[in-house]
Design brief:
The chain is of the alpha/beta class and about 210 residues long. It is built from eight helices and seven strands. It folds into two domains: about 160 residues, Rossmann fold, CATH 3.40.50; about 45 residues.
């Protein structure tokens, strides 16, 4: 089956010996794709209509024995298995943080948030996770940050909370620099502290090119 580059990248971060809990599974395309790696999946969605489409797709590929479906608000109705990987993609950081209030039983997290990445990274690190992978990709003209967290403790700078630990995608770095320059051009000169901070951020990013 064909899936987006974004979903393929998410799938590439999943360990072979884990059980995936896909929160907000939508049509369960990621879960169906992951069965090629012999990974057990639990497809979860808060919306019954979306879950029904997921169930139809799972039945279409005869994968009922490999993919469980659960109607749930986040992890509320999910029994967390050992050696798990929680996948939450395509949601806002506020919603993701609400889902991850209790992380004691969670082993690995793969997160793709639509906004507030600084707050996302900082919150999850505060829950005793470290950033294992932080990939920037472009899919259908839009950039995505796909972040894998594992249990453990590491310290990060404020810039790493803002932009992550991987700077190999130079197109993404230039995109962020240009975005900051647009903001800078619209900040009146009298707000010199804001301008100074933004220039400092851009200097940091330029050093990563």
């Amino acid at each position: 089956m064909r899936i987006s580059n974004r979903l393929k990248t998410i799938a590439s971060l999943v360990d072979n010996d884990t059980t995936v809990i896909d929160i907000g599974c939508d049509h369960a395309l990621l879960d169906i794709y992951l069965t090629n790696k012999n990974i057990k999946c639990i497809a979860v969605d808060i919306n019954q209509n979306a879950l029904n489409i997921a169930i139809d797709n799972i039945e279409k590929y005869h994968l009922e024995d490999k993919i469980e479906t659960i109607l749930s608000n986040g992890l509320e109705n999910v029994k967390i298995p050992n050696n798990n990987t929680i996948v939450i993609c395509g949601m806002g950081t506020k919603t993701i943080i609400d889902i991850l209030k209790d992380t004691k039983k969670l082993d690995n997290l793969i997160i793709q948030s639509n906004n507030e990445l600084y707050e996302l990274r900082k919150y999850i690190v505060s829950k005793n996770f470290y950033i294992d992978s932080d990939i920037k990709i472009k899919d259908k003209g839009k950039f995505y940050n796909i972040i894998k967290f594992k249990k453990g403790n590491k310290k990060y700078s404020k810039y790493e909370y803002m932009y992550g630990i991987d700077y190999s995608n130079k197109e993404y770095i230039n995109f962020e620099i240009n975005k900051n320059n647009i903001i800078l051009n619209n900040i009146p000169k009298k707000y010199f502290i804001k301008r100074y901070k933004l220039k400092k951020i851009n200097k940091y990013l330029k050093n990563k090119l």
